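Interim report, section 4.2 (structural modelling).
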Amino acid sequence: MKSFVRLVASERLKLSKSFIWLLVPLSPLLALAIGLLVSFDSYDISESQAKYAMLVSAMSSFHSMLFLPILTGIFSAFVCRYEHGSGGWKQLLTLPISRTALYCAKFIVVATLIALTQLLFFGAVCLAGAYHGISFDIEWAPLLMAIGGSFLACLPLAALQLLVSVSWSSFAAPLAINVMLTIPNILVLNSAKIAPFYPWAQPMLTMLTFSNDSFNGSAPTISNMLITIAGSFFVFWAAGLLYFNRKEV
Amino acid sequence: MNEWVIETKGLSKRYKGRYAVSNLNLKIARGDIYGFLGPNGAGKTTTIRMLLGLIKPSNGSVHIFGKALNKDKLSILRRIGSLVEYPSYYGHLSAVDNLEAIRRILDVPTARIAEVLDIVGLAKEARRPVKGFSLGMKQRLGIASALLGNPELLMLDEPTNGLDPSGILEIRELIKQMPKQHGITVLISSHLLSEVELTAGTVGIIRQGELVFQDTIENLHQQAKGSISLSVSEPELAMTLLKEHGINAIMNDSSILLEQTNNETIARMVKRLVERDHSIYRVEEKRKSLEDLFLQIVGEGKRA
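Predicted structure of the assembly:
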């Protein structure tokens, strides 16, 4: 366990002084800008909880529909980037670490970056709320659940992207695949039949549980989402581990 | 019981039906510098990748420090330092941070980073980002990271690739002192015999995936037999004279070449020639260079 912590620390060191840290606050900042521009005037809402629901709904649409899945792909590609150049895998894998541990360490770094993004998003919601003078006296649990659930929904995507990033030495190709699978979200989210089973739509669906609205009026149940998230995570994760352990370097 | 640091038995690697390495039996003794030679594409790097567990052999076994590689991989790797093909580096980080990333995994004291940087002579450049390093400096950084974990065995795959002559000399001196000063066994691969000739104690020569020579460098020297070349005033007359005395010689341009090189024969021959008033300009010993022998072994695939 101690050696695993050291391995994660080593992975983190590689990300220091890199531009990846600029990408983390990007989407929350954009969401903040949207949040500041939201106008409650044309709606007759007085309740704080409802106001937050509307605020989050506006702020999270781009964030959870497009940016979060795409950022997940970028983070995954990024943690493999340095190894693909100039024989880095060879050096790394001749060190006394198991491939499974290394794969997990890289995954944890990606997950941490997504978690940071979500944390900043939560901060952006609070800031926008304060700007509009909405009382903080609301139930926070559903919002935190939505943001946390959205984070969990990104993990299967991270697992798949890590698999693709490990196998292809190109930085752009995994990103292209990722964007290709994320863009259909715009359509898929409107389908009550497909959306609950489309992994790339889950970050948005989990986020929508807070504002209780859905694109077509029939919000998928939490259990349905959990099955999709856990199922796709297991498949992508197992495939990635299996592939990485057999990869010839 | 087992004095070999590396021992492979019937090691083979097959790619799509073609053997990149076949039936390799390497034996590398403790404290030795083993020169692993072969032309490009002979299977050197493939072998080293198998020795490091980067790829799985199709057949055969690898034992390092007397333990099976496929069973004790991590504990074996902990005692090995390696540099495969190109030095790997994180360009945006300084030399110190590059080593720190590896140090965290190996769990050696922080002071070790300064030590290895000192050994490879990079102490002054330690804080600069590595992307601004010259190839020679990157190569030295690669060797520094290989040394970081106080390895007992160092595997260097073409460590002088792309270096200028002074860089090659520097690396050679560095490698030479490893067994003496640090008790490290070194496996160094190269496609140039001249490069390992001065450092290695044992050489293994690989050709098309097969080991065609494995012996000490002294024995390789002995295989490189010499010949005597005579340069005289009238070579044709001299030839007939030598034939009369039953000495086998070959005419080569205007000089006479003798395969036998024992002292009596030479003395007798020179005496006869002088008696017949031949002017002898030169008596030279011509040694076949190791490089010639290497090319011959690699070219013909003569089994030794």
